[in-house]
Amino acid sequence: MPWLSALKDTARSGLTVERARLEPLVTLRAAGGVALVVALLLAFGSPALAVSSAFGAFAAGLATFQQSWRPRPVLALGVAAGLGLSTFLGYLAAYSHVLFVLLLAVWTLLAGMAWAVGPVSGLVATQTVAVMLVTVTLPTSVAGAAEHAALISVGGVVQALLIVLFPIRPWGRQRDALADALAAEADYARRLRHDPVARFDPQPLMEARSAAELTPRQARNRPRELAGPRGLAERLRPVLAALADPVVGAPAEGPQRDRVRDLLAAAASVLDAVARAIRWGRPVRLPPEALAVLQVPEEGPMLDGAARRSAYRLIALLGDVVEESDEPVRTARRAGERRPLLRPTVPRLVPVALRAVRREATWSSPVARHAVRVAVVASAGYVLGAALPLGHGYWAPMASVMVMRPDFAQTYSRGVARFAGTVVGVLLAAALATLLHPGVYVSAALAVACVGLLYLLMGTGYVVASACIGAYVVFLLGMVGEGWSQTVQARVALTLLGGLLAMAAYAVFPVWETRRLRDRLADWLAANGAYCLAVLDAYARPADVRPRRVRDTLLDSRAARTAWEETAERALKEPVRHRGLSRTAERASDAALATMGRVTMLMEAHIPDRDAQPSPYAGKFADALGAALPDAVAAVRERRAPDWTGPRAVVADWYAAEGDRGVAVRGAELLVDALDELAAALSPGPGGRNRAARRT
């Protein structure tokens, strides 16, 4: 994509305002925390102390709105600790500009590396850099440093106490994640009625699994209806796909296909009812017409073979889902109930975070390069801002730090949104200040109102958030007597400077996702291959089947697919040409590996019982595929076409020996076809790409 087109796309993305689900009660509680801190400091302190301490409550409240599965009080306390430490260190170094710039560079570098742990950690670390920049405008002394650090930390403590004292919809996020997963399964069932090979986005199931990871304390208090349905939803997906597939399920047309469509519609209705019940903590109310369809008919169209087995499994699993979700109160752990997925506590999270940072501490890592970029830009922005006669020079590096992200699209879209939103916000606040001439208390009330709007509209887009923050700053500084005219000029100019520095830094020192496409594709192929080998091993040696191995390889396959899709989405917005993987080859490869995963899932749905006869050809096919897989993964990375001669020969022998009988041989044929599609997509030269384009 040319640079001009990329800039237009990112600007349009940054200025987009989307509809989002609002949380007015949570917003009221978080804004109330900011108001409480400001009111206390105005009553017993000074406006300057109220301004500085408001940042702690503001940042802690902001963190509690992020998509994190940890308890919100823990997030608020974590932000309070980080802000307090950064404030204290900033005060200690503020007496020397050189020492402060060095501290800022080191602290920002560490904050940039925090993105290796996760986006919430990266956001919290970014907030600590912002508060460190603010501290240099205040008096410097060790006692003053400790006082202001404590005041800023108190803001986070207040937010945590409010969350504990006024809980709003406990377990609401976990309920929503599980309900979204079940609703996605319902939508998948409906789409399968019309498209038997419809693709399924596993992201809702992955989110539900992340939400199910609990600390030991959470695990003791979790409602029981959040424990069982997620695992059953995971088992439902392959059964739905196997029932609808015309190769291993019912015929494409005829009475059996009509029966399958009815079963899929009934399953969707049941899953939607369960999703609503879990979301709002109510009993499950099933539609009678769906229950009638799920009964085994005495007459009319009947299924046979693999489709019949899938139908029986579907009916049984739906019954289990309803039973597991229809007990809103958990009294005691049942005998044999599976233990929850445990999330490490905060102390145990430290070595996990250190390992994540160590993994990303390489020159080619996007996170490491982001850390270097943001450290250099923050230091340069601070020096330039201090040199300009505008006052509040820290706004320039703060704008850079807040907009910079490890990828091109987010950095540029946020840069545009930050500037546009800031201009709108400060102009509206200036107009309001001109009309009202607010004093200290009115300015404080208007600042809290802006914070409330920010919390309420946070999900609508970064440009809206930037407008709210811009207005918030105007009213906040109005509390200490600064005129709005000076604030507007400095804020706009320094925000523009910070945004331009951030964009220039990425252009000079980029990490293009386009160049990583082949590595992500190879990772997905390797993960899909491991998943396929685990399923084939269950057919070759049913008595030794290891469900845990199948499950783990499936999760790895999903993670690899998600990483590929995220990289491909970011690469599509970058102003660089492809490096050995054209857009056509990318789409064809994606379709081939998605088909490979779907076929493996269909085979998983029909894994034989432990007392079934072993399939020798399944073992031979697994051996041939396992032998070819490492070289194929290397070929994808090295811009060569994979060679699947060995697996193809075994499938030909298998079909000649057994014919078109059984799910395993049909699945093996489809797998080889998908692998051939991948080889055609990645074949060097226009011939291979043209063949892939025609097949897709």
UniProtKB/TrEMBL annotation:
<feature type="region of interest" description="Disordered">
    <location>
        <begin position="208"/>
        <end position="228"/>
    </location>
</feature>
<feature type="transmembrane region" description="Helical">
    <location>
        <begin position="463"/>
        <end position="480"/>
    </location>
</feature>
<keyword id="KW-0812">Transmembrane</keyword>
<keyword id="KW-1133">Transmembrane helix</keyword>
<feature type="transmembrane region" description="Helical">
    <location>
        <begin position="492"/>
        <end position="509"/>
    </location>
</feature>
<feature type="transmembrane region" description="Helical">
    <location>
        <begin position="74"/>
        <end position="92"/>
    </location>
</feature>
<feature type="transmembrane region" description="Helical">
    <location>
        <begin position="374"/>
        <end position="395"/>
    </location>
</feature>
<feature type="transmembrane region" description="Helical">
    <location>
        <begin position="98"/>
        <end position="117"/>
    </location>
</feature>
<protein>
    <recommendedName>
        <fullName>FUSC family protein</fullName>
    </recommendedName>
</protein>
<feature type="domain" description="Integral membrane protein YccS N-terminal">
    <location>
        <begin position="85"/>
        <end position="190"/>
    </location>
</feature>
<dbReference type="InterPro" id="IPR032692">
    <property type="entry name" value="YccS_N"/>
</dbReference>
<dbReference type="Pfam" id="PF12805">
    <property type="entry name" value="FUSC-like"/>
</dbReference>
<dbReference type="Pfam" id="PF13515">
    <property type="entry name" value="FUSC_2"/>
</dbReference>
<dbReference type="InterPro" id="IPR049453">
    <property type="entry name" value="Memb_transporter_dom"/>
</dbReference>
<keyword id="KW-0472">Membrane</keyword>
<feature type="transmembrane region" description="Helical">
    <location>
        <begin position="149"/>
        <end position="168"/>
    </location>
</feature>
<feature type="transmembrane region" description="Helical">
    <location>
        <begin position="34"/>
        <end position="62"/>
    </location>
</feature>
<feature type="domain" description="Integral membrane bound transporter">
    <location>
        <begin position="382"/>
        <end position="504"/>
    </location>
</feature>
<feature type="transmembrane region" description="Helical">
    <location>
        <begin position="415"/>
        <end position="433"/>
    </location>
</feature>
